[in-house]
Amino acid sequence: MTDLNPLGTLVSTDEFASCCSGEVSGEITHAHLNSITEAVRHRYGALATTAAERALSSDKASDTFYTEGQRNVLTDETAGASAGCGNPVGIADAKPGETVLDLGSGGGIDCFIAAREVGHTGHVIGIDMTPEMLTLARDNAEKLRTNNVVFKLGHIESIPQSDNSVDLVISNCVIALSEKKSRVFSEIFRILKPGGRFVISDVVTEKPLPGDVRKSAAEWVDCVGGAAVMSEYIEMIADAGFLDVEVLEKQTRSSGAEAWRDLLINLTVRAFKKV
């Protein structure tokens, strides 16, 4: 099993859209195309700086995937920064006292919802590689007076967290952005306690996408170019050592004129680490 790695063959573009809904103006220059990581960081840095403006949009991801009750306890900026493809925390069944870690936490939407569920005896850790998003999330935490959440700078391929220390890992439309998905799942396995689990929402495909799509910087930062074939995605999870892999939600995205877009799937999956 090998991960997609189109470095050195990226297709330049002048504009790119948000991961799952709405648009953010910005440019990917050749300087940003040195790696997928830099293109993604640039994209989500721009998203963080326009979160308040996007909160006024009628088609933002938080309106699509989160309940009114969940949205009502968030700041406008938290809702505006959301760019997910599901609501993993909504079906993860976080319990009081648990430690939850969110990969690619962005403005903090899933962290703040989880913080209410784990209560004052629990802890939530948000990991994000974009400094602008971390600043936004920490500002949101102050506004919401949330004391059981901490946000850390880090990469999902090398999670800044000790072994066997987390009860639940969540992630929302982030692993599709990684060039090294197998490594991400190995890292999740490492940090989970025995018996721990993850619930992840992500974009996958029914079969391989066209080569030009997989090489496009615009499609990568849109959570599309790096999307793995669903069967291979599940295989990577099992290869990392997880048990009881279960698809919780599966929905075809079908969001464009190109025929290949009908291959895209919003997937939510759960798996467990052996006790």
What's this entry about, in short?
By secondary structure, the chain is of the alpha/beta class.
Overview of the structural elements:
- The chain is an alpha/beta fold and 275 residues long.
- The chain has a single domain, classed as Vaccinia Virus protein VP39 (Rossmann fold, 3-Layer(aba) Sandwich), CATH 3.40.50.
- It is 32% helix and 21% strand.
- Strands 1, 2, 3, 4, 5, 6, 7 and 8 form an 8-stranded mixed beta sheet that branches.
- Helix 6 links the parallel strand 1 and strand 2.
- Helix 1 (36-49) runs parallel beside helix 7 (131-144).
- The longest helix is centred in the first third of the chain and has 14 residues, at 36-49.
- The protein is globular.
- The protein starts with 35 loop residues before the first helix and ends with a strand.
Features of this protein?
275 residues, alpha/beta, Rossmann fold, eight-stranded mixed sheet, 11 helices, 8 strands
First-to-last CA distance: 26 Å
Rg from alpha-carbon coordinates: 17 Å
> What oligomeric state best describes the polypeptide chains here?
single chain
Q: Strand share of the residues?
A: 15-25%
Write the layout of secondary structure elements.
Elements: H1 36-49, H2 51-54, H3 61-65, H4 68-71, H5 76-81, E1 99-103, H6 109-118, E2 123-128, H7 131-144, E3 149-153, E4 166-172, H8 181-191, E5 192-205, H9 211-214, H10 217-221, E6 228-229, H11 230-239, E7 243-252, E8 264-272
Parallel strand pairs: 1-2, 1-4, 2-3, 4-5, 5-6
Antiparallel strand pairs: 5-8, 7-8
